[in-house]
Amino acid sequence: MILPDAHPLIKTPKIGVLIINLGTPEATDYWSMRRYLSEFLSDPRVIDTNPLLWQVILQGVILSFRPSKSGHAYAQIWNKERDESPLKTFTRAQCEKISTVLSQSNPDIVVEWAMRYGKPSTRSGLENLMEQGCEKILLFALYPQYSACTTATAYDKAFDTLKTITRQPAIRTAAHWHDDPAYIDVLAGSVREALGDDENAQPDHILASFHGVPMRYLQKGDPYHCYCVKTGRLLREKLGWAEERWTTTFQSRFGPQEWLRPYTDETVRNLAKSGVKHLAILSPAFVSDCIETLEEINIGLREEFLANGGE
């Protein structure tokens, strides 16, 4: 084929996979945290109230004090060796492993990773794939249980980038996998590995703690609550645990409105006060350890459980 002068190089068509995680600040200082929280909490999929009123509250009140509080929490779990949050460390590692596995079956598959908020951006991930000749791209949001404020906004951000591209690739989006047998098997395996085989060392109770969302999202038709409950039930059944020794809860609520119940923090306190001494918590909604698992649960809630009588 004879190409005209100055014609762009025609590359071998490739297939791209863009895995998308939530996001992370670039550092723990006030301004880095403020930039990240401002982007995150300005997303109308996350905060669905009147945007003008919300921005006055967010920029004038919340972002005056919350960056320092959040920065302190991040500092406790920060990956000092790489100078980044664990979420970024683990997402990168997951991308590398997925790339290795997929390239064995098809060397023309290219895998990149991105964050919905912060860096590396979704735009940069898409541009990197297209620069490598990807004419088909799978968007893979790392949320087993679909929610509009996680899965949908991740894909929204990718579509915003695609609106500005003259020659768009073919795009597919990965569906949620809250009840996929392979996912349930992996969760069950991780629980068995963590608890071990010693019958005398088993916990009195297990919590499956999912990230919460405001109750009004469920009332507007978001299926996230149903998917979380089903994941918890399937996992409990797979493990053979009795219903009375297992609770599915929701963590990380923010603000005065009602969120999905039961709340993880209240449940942890009540279990400790009721005489539960040995408690295990897993977080099936998170595919990577992050601030919610490493600081909120493994530091904050651990201290609260011990303070209320747990061992």
Characterize the structure shown.
- The protein is of the alpha/beta class.
- 47% of the residues lie in helices and 16% in strands.
- It has 10 helices and 7 strands.
- It has a 4-stranded parallel beta sheet, sandwiched between helices.
- Helix 5 links the parallel strand 3 and strand 4.
- Helix 1 crosses helix 2, helix 2 crosses helix 10 and helix 9 packs parallel to helix 10.
- The N and C termini lie far apart (74 Å).
Quick tags:
7 strands; 4-stranded parallel beta sheet; alpha/beta; about 300 residues
Portion of residues within helices? 40-55%
Tell me the strand order in the biggest sheet.
Answer: 2-1-3-4
* Count of β-strands: 7
Q: Whole-number radius of gyration?
A: 21 Å
Low-confidence stretches: none
- Proportion of residues in extended strands: 15-25%
- Taken in chain order, the helices and strands follow as EHHHEHEHEHEHHEHEH
Structural class: alpha/beta
Overall pLDDT confidence = 95
Q: How many DSSP helices? A: 10
Distance between the termini: 74 Å
Main pleated sheet = 4 strands, parallel
Task: Name the shape in a single word.
Answer: globular
